[in-house]
Amino acid sequence: MRQSSEPFKVESDDSMSDDDEGIFVSPTRPSESTRLPADGELTPTNLDPNGDAIVIIPGKNTSTSPAKSFRVSTHVLGLASKIFMQIFGPRHFSAPGTPRIRTIEGVHHRATLDDDDPIAMEVILGILHFKVPEAAAQMDARKLANIAIHCDKYNCTRVIKPYLADWFKEANTILPTTSILPSTGPTSVADDDSSDSDDSDSDDSSDSEDTKLSEQLGFLLLAAHFFRDEKQFKHFSKVVVQNLTPTFSAEWEKDALLKLLSRTMKSKLVDKVKKCQGYLRNDLESGISRLLGHAETHKVRGDLCGKCGVVYSTLPTTRECSDCEFTEFYPSYCSKDSRVGEYVENMKRFGLWSSKRFERCPVSQLTRKVAKLAENIFDDEVHECDGRDKCPLRLELTLLNKAFMKRSDSLEGISLFPLQKSRKRQRDEAN
């Protein structure tokens, strides 16, 4: 979905004489905020005190999209962009009936950009006039995406390019710094709900945070796309694959800006997420066959209840199981069957065994869970046998952790997709 290359709507007025009634606007300092009085008068921001045109951007006239107007130099804008040259060029403003607006200093040409975002245009017009507005110093992902879209619309990205590295860096700092997504599900035995049921709601507690993060990553990817920044696009597409689940595509379709990303692009990212999740799932399940390949047996500290299977490191003084009151205990061993059972039980406790819960976890979260599981298994309170560091279960979880980390780190982003340009846009840029 492309925005129109005709970025403003001209309201037809008759040629204005000095005696005609018109809208009066007074100049302000660049830092003075825009006001919208009841009579519709706008106080323009002086980007050029000697400017020959007033640009009015109505926006939605809300707190997030306040109406703004600017006194600009049509010569400066024309040098920055061919699109601006067509809008503010001599051919347009010399035509009969061209809209004009009267200020204290005199009569200025007027252009109303109805379809544009006021804050994004404030940044762009300010930079083109060597006056960086406050809005440019407080960057966030959505604002950056909006600026990128407008830079592409007016073909002036090359002028904005020196600011991009800092903007992307600042917008990126709002994202969580630890593995991007917050952990939702058990990360330790103490955090676990001891359930790996497909109906469990434990992974839904951070849905709002995950949705917000999904949108932020989408805006950053959108910004890189419209700025034509290959490096940033590859970086953020990799971050998307590492830290979002396949449902992000449906979430992006709900936002008007994110819908500008092509479905082919989103489909390719979803496929990469699913493919990586599939590899990790295969790594996890193949651990069982590897464990069954180790026939050695090691003595486990403690005794096993002959009825319920509870292992006691120290037998109760009553020599009676506190769970089932059974009185017969047997030596406990770390065998291939017990290792497989413990392996599966731990996967369930960390929400890794159910295929549905597995798919609801981003790659980064799956990697964190396995890393925590591999760390816990070396705790003697969790698993202690005579095999120590050579215990097949400990070795398998260590290998699984390395495999998950390697797959996550080796993920690559995708290359820039071409911009879809209308025939009219192509003609405009060619002129």
Written overview of the protein:
- The protein is built from 17 helices and 9 strands.
- Helices cover 44% and strands 10% of the residues.
- With 431 residues, the protein is α/β, with parallel strands linked by helices.
- Helix 12 runs antiparallel to helix 16.
Please write out the topology.
Elements: E1 24-25, E2 45-46, E3 53-57, E4 68-72, H1 74-80, H2 82-88, H3 90-93, E5 100-103, E6 106-112, H4 118-128, H5 134-137, H6 141-153, H7 157-160, H8 164-172, H9 207-227, H10 230-243, H11 248-252, H12 263-292, E7 298-305, E8 311-312, E9 329-334, H13 336-349, H14 355-359, H15 363-376, H16 392-409, H17 423-430
Parallel strand pairs: 1-5, 2-4, 3-6
Antiparallel strand pairs: 3-4, 5-6, 7-8, 7-9
Helix pairs in contact: 1-2, 4-6, 6-9, 9-10, 10-12, 12-16, 15-16
